[in-house]
Here is the input.
Amino acid sequence: MDRPFIHINCASTLDGKIARPDGSRLRISGPWDMKRVHQMRSELGAILVGAGTIIGDDPKLTVKDEYVPGAPSLNKIVIDGKGKIPVTSRFLRTKGRSIIVTSEGCDRTWLSELITAKEKEELELEIIELDGTDGRVDLQKMLKALHEMDIKKIMVEGGAQIIWEFVEQGLFDRFTIYYGPLLIGGKGPTVMDGIGFMKGAASIEIEKIVETPDGGFLVEMVSIDH
Ligand SMILES: NC(=O)c1ccc[n+]([C@@H]2O[C@H](COP(=O)([O-])OP(=O)(O)OC[C@H]3O[C@@H](n4cnc5c(N)ncnc54)[C@H](OP(=O)(O)O)[C@@H]3O)[C@@H](O)[C@H]2O)c1
Here is the structure.
């Protein structure tokens, strides 16, 4: 396999939502799931999210010491084909290497501001610029490049568009969804957005369903399509 092992993970309400109707952040996981997620981040060593998650939530993308004391630093990968994430984003300034995957079609002013911030602040940042003038990044090419950088395992954490693309293209090995005891409604982001499958569906097998101490449950799936 010349791509990293991919484990998709997200937290959902019982009605399939991963954020509030306006896309703002919703705390779904309790302490039990938070600990599991941070342990997973630490074990896999690399975490990946889309530009939408950075713009909306401004996450730090770290492993918290309270969950995994003394954890090694993470590779924090963000896909931003057009160059929209703020150069002030918090993940750029937390422990570990940040990797921004963009395209030839990205906003060139944004790119030069990012490079200036990297040099001025001595950020641990790598920018991967792949071909594609339409601002799209080919996920297979991206995974090959990351594999060549010795990144062998990645936890894909969202959001809705990114998860859809990995599942649509069969680019995953495991998929876990934590369902918290919440109902939100509305038309906010779901576990997977995108256009959806008009024929068939993703080929997965449920390996285990675990009732969790915080009143939710965890569904552990494996892909049978790769
Ligand atoms: N509950 C959870 O576990 C969880 C976890 C993470 C996020 N979230 C929620 O998810 C929501 C964000 O989801 P989202 O779907 O809006 O955003 P997203 O999936 O994080 O990012 C999507 C954006 O990334 C860029 N992108 C995606 N694929 C690309 C590709 N192949 N090439 C180039 N660029 C690509 C695109 O930007 P352009 O449109 O500019 O091209 C796209 O709009 C937030 O509400 C957040 O709170 C929840």
Remarks:
- Strands lie at 5-12, 46-50, 75-79, 97-103, 125-130, 153-158, 174-179, 204-211, 217-223.
- Residues 5-223 form a domain with the Dihydrofolate Reductase, subunit A fold (CATH 3.40.430.10).
